[in-house]
C-alpha cells in the first residue's frame, strides 16, 4: 500500500532528510547532477510504502501471523489536478539544419522523395484552384467577394499544411523518461530498439522519420511528416480547410452552371477547361478529406489512432481495446477557443501527460516553478481543466 502526503520540509523538525546528502530523493539528485544547479526546495511529497509479509514461524519472534514494515521515501512534489504552468523554454537546438534528428533545429523530412513530391503537389493543386477561381471571378462568373473568401480559405489550408509538415510531431528525445505516475504504476517500460530510447505508451517508431513519435496516428505522405500528438491540431485544421475549399468551390461551380446560362455569360475556353479539371479535383479532395476527417474523429472519440486501429483489426482484437476519448484540450490546447482555427502551436496544461514522457530538464523546470509558486503562497496557476 502506498500513501502519499504533502510535507513541508522547511518547517518539519522530525524529518531526517536534508537538502544535501543521502536524504535527497534519487530523482532530485539526478536532476541536480544533470543541470549542475542546486535548488532549495521547500515542499516535497512523502510516500509511505507499507509492506505486509507473513512471519517466519521457525525463527525467534515467529509463530505465524503477519508483519508490517513501513518505509518512507521522499518524492518530488507533483502537480495537483487543475494546476499547470506554461513552459516557455525552447528545447529545440538553435541550428538552421533541416532534418528529423535531435540535433536538427528545423523539423523537416527531407529524406523521403515521394513524400516531398506529394507535399509539393498539394501546394501546386491548391494554387491552381485559387487561380482558377480568381479567373472565374475576373470573367464575372460570380461576385469577387466569393472568390476572395475562397483564396483566404486556400491560404489558411496551405498555412496549416506548412505548419503540419514543419512541426515536430512529438518525437521522443534520448533523454525521455517515464512519467512519475507511470513509474509508480509499472516499474518496467518498453524501449525502442531503433532509437534506443524509452518508448511511451501509444507511441510508434516511424521508419520514414526514423524517430519514435508520441501518440502517432500515421505517417502522411501528403504532409511529408508524421501526424502525432504535437501536430494533430494543424493536421485537423488542414483537413477542415481543404474540405471547406472543396465543397465551397463545388457549390460555386454549381451556382455558376445553373445561374449563369444566358448569352452574356461566356467564358474563355481555357477557363472552361480549368474549371472542368478542377471539378474532378474538388470531388476527389472532398471524398478524401471526408474519409480522413471521419478517421480522425473516430481516433479522437476512441483514443485509438490509425496505426493501432489497423493493427487491432488485423489481429482481430478490436473488441478488447480500452477506448478512452482524447480531450479536445489535449489537441487544441488551453489557450482559448479563439486560437483553435489558426495554425499556432497549442499550449497543453500538462505537456508530459499529452506526450507520454518526461525529460529531466522539464521536470526540473516544473519543480522550480512549483517551488516558486509555493514560496509566493500560491499553488501554481489554476487552469482550465
Ligand atoms: Zn524508435
Ligand atoms: Zn514519420
UniProtKB/TrEMBL annotation:
Q: How does it sit in the membrane?
A: Multi-pass membrane protein
Q: Which PROSITE patterns match?
A: DHHC
Q: Name one GO cellular component term.
A: membrane
Q: Which residue ranges does UniProt annotate as crossing the membrane? A: 117-138, 144-162, 235-255, 267-288
Gene Ontology molecular function: protein-cysteine S-palmitoyltransferase activity
Q: Where is the Palmitoyltransferase DHHC domain?
A: 187-312
What keyword terms does UniProt attach to this protein? Answer: Acyltransferase, Membrane, Transferase, Transmembrane, Transmembrane helix
Q: Does the keyword Membrane apply?
A: yes
- Major enzyme class: transferase
| Major site of localization recorded for this protein | membrane
What is its subcellular localisation?
Membrane
- Which Enzyme Commission number(s) are listed? 2.3.1.225
Under the heading InterPro entries, the entry gives: Palmitoyltrfase_DHHC, PFA4/ZDH16/20/ERF2-like
Q: Does the keyword Acetylation apply?
A: no
Signal sequence, start to end: none
Q: Where is this region: Disordered?
A: 1-21, 166-188
Report any Pfam family annotated for this entry: DHHC
| Residue stretches of biased makeup (Low complexity) | 10-21
Q: Which family does it belong to?
A: Belongs to the DHHC palmitoyltransferase family.
Question: Per the record, what about its domains?
Answer: The DHHC domain is required for palmitoyltransferase activity.
What is the name attached to this protein's record?
Palmitoyltransferase
UniProt organism field = Stephanodiscus triporus
Q: What is the lineage of its organism?
A: Eukaryota, Sar, Stramenopiles, Ochrophyta, Bacillariophyta
